[in-house]
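Hey, can you fold this one?
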Amino acid sequence: STLRILDLVGNQLNDFPMGAFEELRNLEELHLSRNPLTNVYHGSFVLLDQLRVLSLAYSQLRVLHPAMFFNLINLRTVHIQNAELEELPIGCFHNITTLETVYFYGNRIREINSLAFGNALQSIVILNGPSNQINSIDPELLNAPNLNYLLLTGNECTDEDFYGVQDNIEDVRTALQGCFDNFNPDNPAPK
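Sure. Predicted structure:
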């Protein structure tokens, strides 16, 4: 198939079978947002190695399987906001060395562990996670070399969560002030 963008936003998809997208190997964008999805199986996207954007936002996933994004070697942007997620499991983004942006706001995530990202830490530019329940941030995540934008408004973070930030950031409060003060709920993410 030559299909590059598939938009299934706002349907009534609860589930899709393993291999549902295997014939769509040229797919670059897959939009599954605003569906009552409760489960995405490990390996559901395994043959979509051209995929750059994956949107599972506004669903009812609650859980990401650690190998759900396996083989998405060109993935750049993941939308998992408002998906009722309770965690970003260890290894879920591990081998996606092209991953730049993760939108995960409006979930129930309590901790951000660098092990969820693994090798993807080298390419991450934007982490957009306001309105979760985050009270623990792995300092290694904050030292990601290309991380330019970290939005954590409306979480349970304290000053202690930001010790260990990159040496070139002189004042943690000043560096992260925009994360807490400039949040606009009508436009929660930069373009």
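Confidence is low (pLDDT under 50) at residues 166-175, 177-191. Let me know if you want another pass with a different chain boundary.
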